[in-house]
Amino acid sequence: QVQLVESGGGLVQAGGSLRLSCAASGRSFSSYHMGWFRQAPGKEREFVAGIRWSGDSTRSADSVKGRFTISRDNAKNTVYLQMNRLKPEDTAVYYCAADRGRQPIVRNMTNAYDYWGQGTQVTVSS
Questions:
Q1: Among 38, 36, 62, which residue's Cα sits nearest to residue 49?
Q2: Residues 6+ apart with CB under 8 A from 69
Q3: Which of 36, 54, 55 is nearest to 45 (CA)?
């Protein structure tokens, strides 16, 4: 069992930056792929970025490429999402998630992830 707690959300002006953190409990964090998802009001939850258990491979959605960077520190059981050049359309609740599967690649489907945090609100004003 893994518990995930996100932090770092808030209100920021367009063009600004935020860094989200997700702290995980449990001994198996370093063996899980990790992902960030977001959900805006009235929309489905969507993949934002993911990182392999080892940190040597990442993937991200086209909408955030070049602006958001995912990273992890396995010694601290923490995954991060650095968000730069934020846009109003980035406004959403952001969730981190853990994929305990043994496949070699990072997956972008919500149903691939086994554990979820409670989410943190990110609001970007224009």
A1: 36
A2: 49, 58, 81, 82, 84
A3: 36
